[in-house]
Amino acid sequence: MTFENQFLLPNGVDIAALPKISLHDHLDGALRPQTILELADAVGVEVPETDADRLGQWFLTQCDAGNLVDYLKTFDLTTAVMQTEEGLTRVAREFVQDLAADGVLYGEVRWAPEQHLARGLTLDQTVEAVQVGIEQGIDDAERAGRSIQIGQLVTAMRHADRALEIAELAVRHLGNGVVGFDIAGAEAGFPASRHRVAFDFLAQEHVPVTVHAGEADGLDSIKSALFDGRALRLGHGVRIAEDITVERSDDQGTYVSLGPTAQWVKDREIALELSPSSNLQTGAIAAWGTDLADHPFDLLYQLGFKTTVNVDNRTMSGTSLTRELSLLSDAFAYDLDDLEVFQQNAASAAFLPLEDREELAEAISAGFEDAERYRA
User: Fold this and answer.
1) Is the distance from CB of 238 to CB of 274 less than 8 angstroms?
2) N or C, which end of the chain has less CB nearby within 10 Å?
3) DSSP string covering 79-141
């Protein structure tokens, strides 16, 4: 997957060259189509297309289903080729290479080890294989003159019953590549409260948590993520806008009132891991419309929520962080200052020690101050 210098702000600044932070980025949603073909051939997995370009288009077509359940079915293929140490390591290495090419300074890669055991690997072996690939990718980036840091978010599948086991796995590898915990999968009907024991354990072990919520389900899911899951960030969280009421809109502006959950999220600066293209594909913003301009991203941003921009799944959306920022800039007339706010929000929400987050913030500021040299 390559990213060309084709996404420009109106003043000519190349978005690809700007420093970025990626918080919501799935490993099994970020495979290069050619890699899928080669790994599938090696392990005997059938593929719907035998040409990389056509396979990439297949993902886009399949994922434009308008609901999360059908969208998630495409992961059957990507996870099928990630069942060996070699497969996991290669995918992780290329993941880091692609983030570095996208201008990412710090990224968190989330993935579910329990989905990669079909060919005999243990949970610990999967985490170790991914970490090997991450470190190889970081070395590749350094040789190419780029600096990047990557942390793993160990993810449990919310419809399964292994959350405590996966939480214990995260703790075992904390400090050795793992920086936090997540739950993902079909959201509706599977609130964070089902995994309260795991979240209690994580809190006792001082492990930061993000929870997929407010994507395929509404406020109750968000409440459970916050109060049962102790989430410091909301994976997507876009449907927090359901707790915002537009009182009136006139020539003087738009006046809104926030419900108690929205007020809580805003006041405590709980980061929203918003993923514009993905939110369109899964129907997460269906209540507001079907175009990016209908996305409540701008409403949340203007109201002072800690909005961050993410890709969710690069393969499924055929996207990059550069592209997502460009799309938002086009939809809402954002300028360089706005884009910097999103990166600073992400830096402050990263699952890193305070000193490291401050260094990231400084690096972002420096990169945006030098943005004039990135003019195409």
Assistant:
1) yes
2) C
3) HHT--SHHHHHHHHHHHHHHHHHTTEEEEEEEE-GGGS-TTS--HHHHHHHHHHHHHHHHHHH
β-bridge partners, 245: 257
179-195 confidence digits (pLDDT tens): 999 999 989 999 999 99
The pLDDT of residue 181: 98
Helix intervals (H) in 245-313: 260-267, 276-281, 297-302
Widest Cα–Cα separation across the chain = 64
C-alpha distance across the termini of the chain, in Å? 21
Q: Cα(351)–Cα(336) distance, rounded to whole angstroms?
A: 25
CA angle 337, 343, 347 (to 5 degrees): 140
CA angle 116, 210, 299 (to 5 degrees): 125
Point out the catalytic residue in the list 94, 215, 273, 340. 215
- Computed over its alpha carbons, how large is the radius of gyration of the chain? 20
Give residue-wise pLDDT tens across range 242-298.
Answer: 999 988 878 777 789 999 999 999 999 999 999 999 999 999 999 999 999 999 999
> How do the domains of the chain map onto residue ranges?
31-365
* Residue 286: DSSP 8-state: T
Which 8-state DSSP code applies to residue 7? -
- Taking CA atoms, 234 is separated from 31, 182, 228, 229, 271, in Å, by 24, 10, 13, 10, 6
**Would you state the CATH architecture of domain 31-365?**
Alpha-Beta Barrel (3.20)
Backbone angles phi, psi at 298, to 5 degrees: -70, -35
**CA nearest neighbour of 92 among 301, 20, 84:** 84
Percent of the chain topping pLDDT 70? 98
- The answer to whether 110 and 26 have CB atoms below 8 angstroms apart is yes
Q: Is 128 a catalytic residue?
A: no
Question: Does 77 have pLDDT greater than 60?
Answer: yes
Residues 248 and 268: their CA atoms lie apart, in Å, by 26
Taking alpha carbons only, the member of 321, 302, 231 closest to residue 271 is 231
- For the CA atoms of 212, 55, 150, 345, the dihedral, rounded to the nearest 10 degrees, stands at -50
Q: What is the pTM of this model?
A: 0.95
pLDDT tens readout for residues 322-332: 999 999 999 99
